[in-house]
Amino acid sequence: MKIVILGFGAVGQGVARVISMKKDYLRSKYGLKPQIVAVCDHSGAAIKEEGLDEKLLLETKTEKGKISLYPSYGAPGVDSLQVLEDVEYDCLVEVTPTDIDDGEPARSHILKAMEDGKDVVTSNKGPLALSFQELGDCAGKNGVELKFEACVGGAMPIINFAHETLAGCNIESIYGILNGTTNYILSRMANEGSSYEQTLQEAQEMGIAETNPYQDVEGIDAACKIVIMANSILNLPVTLKDVDVEGISRITSESIALAKKEGMLIKLIGEASPDALEVSPRLVRQGSPFAVEGTLNVATLKTDLADDVTVVGKGAGSVETASAILSDIVSIWKIRK
Amino acid sequence: MKIVILGFGAVGQGVARVISMKKDYLRSKYGLKPQIVAVCDHSGAAIKEEGLDEKLLLETKTEKGKISLYPSYGAPGVDSLQVLEDVEYDCLVEVTPTDIDDGEPARSHILKAMEDGKDVVTSNKGPLALSFQELGDCAGKNGVELKFEACVGGAMPIINFAHETLAGCNIESIYGILNGTTNYILSRMANEGSSYEQTLQEAQEMGIAETNPYQDVEGIDAACKIVIMANSILNLPVTLKDVDVEGISRITSESIALAKKEGMLIKLIGEASPDALEVSPRLVRQGSPFAVEGTLNVATLKTDLADDVTVVGKGAGSVETASAILSDIVSIWKIRK
């Protein structure tokens, strides 16, 4: 399977790393031989029809900062759409940074690949949160797969779980902690009695919160994930603007202490159902599956037969997110082979 | 798909109920038309080539106590092996009561069906805990499917999750709360400071613990599940006698209170890895995915790429367990159609 990777930040590098790590496993277990035939970053591309070397890709990026400096096969200034036009491949891995205003450039990459009859795996929330139905229709029309497990909680594989493992159940609603940064901040506030501002600053110093934490702490990131799950699991044709969003920046240590006295915790919860599409701080009970701490993500599916089923996993991390992309690649391979 | 159900207690009746509930869904989503062509209980059988009526099956059992009194198609005294010999069917649903001494009669039912080239779905832990490898070999030799999601935590679908959803990951170990009765008892002891004996008695009065609670409270039920997961997820050829088992009957309210002071809980934990096969009471941290209360089950898979991934769900319940059986039926259908 010939793969093009667009975007070579933490997730793109994670994908190269896991493909390198799992070559023997994939070949022996599934007969799958993934070949990375092109990689793009802001500097240009590295392109090799017979497959680039994953370790050399990672070395080039780490040591030289630009993928276009890949020995002999670097292509400075060649842009992503050009690569999709010129290179022969089977599957696009779209892992450029998320943009939630217009979803670009990921949206154009994904549409171009699908219109050319290629399967797509992405971790990019932007295009899906803004125009899920358009992308889904395009995939259907062109008979290609569009997979996006990595968009919703890196290593909390809730989407494929809903479609594959719960095949006999109808899923009625989704409820979850969908953002690791806010869960980390709220957990530390609860355990240490510290203020929101102080805890956020410490989380930034530790690299858990970003320098500009707006999308995380104001619930936008969680809202994107709720939109993607609402569309793909509940078949609700909604977009980001349909979500009522409230973040955690106004939560005080006093309100957390008060909740704690009653055996409760405050968590930033996303909910999707035919009646509600919302991200907001809510009380959860100690001892419930939602009482998890740290950067963990958790999502509960309310089903008609199995009652509530919950998945807990790491919400972020380069290799963890890449593992979701790899699972998507494997499931495409199972269909295509 | 023609289905024979052996055993018509809570789980068997749940299967009839979910098939009845989900007929339209299964037909429109998967093109699957399940037909129950025979059902056996201790009294005999009900057999009808064109398919028995699910509601009439449930009515007959509830009102008359014997499935052999099914109108016009009852067959008093006809036993299970005879049914498997005489009836034309595609898939056996084996849901007779679990026996952990010799696994019978389920073991003979399952072997007979597989040797006749039929697929099997079971919720029966006995045969799998005692002779997983033999049954797996028999399935392989006869080219049939043997599925058993319902054996391990009714509505906590960890086995198919491991095989399908985490397709790109290697799973290194399994760790979980695998018995709802003991989790319920330990949760109440922690919340109320009550003694083991008193809490067990109340759980029995509520129907959460059985009259003879030995297999639950002494960890045998959890050990069976650990054996099944070790075989099917970790490929370890172990049986029940390989598990070190310690139950919860010697846990005092004092030790639980002491743990609680340090932000810990005592839970009955099962572990399977290449180095350990064990069920025993252990300390878990408040705020971890293992701090769940009530009758919930939880299992964590330690993976090479996605770190720890956890599934939480109801461990028991007629319809919940039947939902796992239905998911197995659907996945067999996807292979066969």
Question: Could you please describe the fold and organization of this structure?
Answer:
Two copies of one chain form a homodimer. Chain A has 337 residues and is of the alpha/beta class. Chain A has two domains: 2-155 and 318-336, Rossmann fold, CATH 3.40.50; 164-314, Dihydrodipicolinate Reductase, domain 2 (2-Layer Sandwich). Helix content of chain A is 43%, strand content 21%. Chain A has 13 helices and 13 strands. Chain A has helices at 10-21, 23-30, 54-64, 80-86, 106-115, 125-142, 158-165, 180-192, 196-205, 214-217, 220-234, 253-261, 318-336; strands at residues 2-6, 35-41, 44-47, 74-76, 91-94, 119-122, 146-147, 171-177, 244-245, 264-272, 277-285, 296-303, 308-314. The first copy, chain A, has a seven-stranded mixed beta sheet, sandwiched between helices. In chain A, strand 6, helix 6 and strand 7 (146-147) form a beta-alpha-beta unit. In chain A, helix 1 (10-21) packs antiparallel against helix 3 (54-64) and helix 1 packs across helix 13 (318-336). The longest helix of chain A has 19 residues, at 318-336. The termini of chain A are close together. At the A-B interface, helix 2, helix 7, strand 12, strand 13 and helix 13 of A face helix 2, helix 7, strand 12, strand 13 and helix 13 of B.
Give the arrangement of secondary structure elements:
2 copies of one chain form a homodimer.
Chain A: E1 2-6, H1 10-21, H2 23-30, E2 35-41, E3 44-47, H3 54-64, E4 74-76, H4 80-86, E5 91-94, H5 106-115, E6 119-122, H6 125-142, E7 146-147, H7 158-165, E8 171-177, H8 180-192, H9 196-205, H10 214-217, H11 220-234, E9 244-245, H12 253-261, E10 264-272, E11 277-285, E12 296-303, E13 308-314, H13 318-336
Parallel strand pairs in A: 1-2, 1-5, 5-6, 6-7, 9-11
Antiparallel strand pairs in A: 2-3, 3-4, 8-10, 8-12, 10-11, 12-13
